[in-house]
Amino acid sequence: MNSSRSAVNTTDEKSPRLETLTRQNTGLQENILMVDDHPENLRLLYQLLSKRGYKVRPTRDGKLALKFALSTPPDLILLDIMMPGMDGYQVCEQLKACPQTKDIPVIFISALNEVFDKVKAFSVGAVDYISKPFEIAEVVARVENQMLLSRLSKEILAKNARLQAEIEERKRIEAELRDSQRWLSAVIKTNPNLLYVYDLIEQQTVYINREIYSDIGYTIEETQQMAGAFLPNFIHPDDLPGFSEHISRIETAKDGESFEFEYRIQHKNGESSWFLSRDTVFARTADGKPWKILGTATEISDRKQAEL
């Protein structure tokens, strides 16, 4: 900057109001790159911002500033306009054209006070404009305002990234769950045994893997009209006491215990088929009582016939 005027209005250098403008402690030292060809301006801003906890890197050359910004991207750039060689407008344009530096906020600090100059500064990508001579309080306030906006923007980007990662993870888990469900469904459908879930509290069968009612001569409408559980309705009367004892054992079962029970299922035509059930508790009530039974039933009629 070639202006001979002082860059700072010294009337408020010792103002008590500055005590309220110190930077909030973020736990990380934020970096500011200062670009001005006037050594006095660099010294003044360096002292001003360093005292407030910023890590300040001064340079008098626009091309060198671009190298610094690319190698060690700062959190904010304070940029003069009137400089020899590459002026501030050209520096800002190149910063905004580079993917690695395009998001770094730039504040112009210049003695150019015409509306045209300020409009051009914003058109090349500046976020703010400070006129020289500047007030110290104004510089501190504008710098801290941009730093706050930058911190908030980074937090939002980080949260969005975490949210996107969580969404992708959920999609992955849901896809794996769908695959597992398809696999389990295929296993259940092709299993020759009966698989069922029995509710001990409601005393009814809440799931069964195939339409056994049709195997024993009933329609689904007929079974729906029957009261209580599905399987107990078809157990041979002589086997009902054994079924009750079987349920009693399960009601006092520990986790991991399984129980077997042999019984006959009556067909609608009066015939019977022998089955072997293996049952275990897989769900309990809030107070730890057995609630739902997971069971398998295998037809053993041929074995029973051979035993006669």
TrEMBL record:
GO BP: regulation of DNA-templated transcription
Bias kind Polar residues: ranges: 1-10
Keywords, in A-Z order: Coiled coil, DNA-binding, Kinase, Phosphoprotein, Transcription, Transcription regulation, Transferase, Two-component regulatory system
Domain PAS intervals: 180-254
Keyword Nucleotide-binding: no
Stretches for region Disordered: 1-23
Domain (PAC) ranges: 259-308
Modified residues (4-aspartylphosphate): D80
GO molecular function: kinase activity; phosphorelay response regulator activity; transcription cis-regulatory region binding
Response regulatory domain boundaries: 31-147
InterPro entries: CheY-like_superfamily, PAC, PAS, PAS-assoc_C, PAS-like_dom_sf, PAS_fold_3, Sig_transdc_resp-reg_receiver, WalR-like
UniProt keyword Transferase present: yes
Entry GO CC: cytosol; protein-DNA complex
NCBIfam families: sensory_box (TIGR00229)
The protein, known as: Circadian input kinase A
Organism encoding this protein: uncultured Segetibacter sp
Organism phylogeny: Bacteria, Pseudomonadati, Bacteroidota, Chitinophagia, Chitinophagales
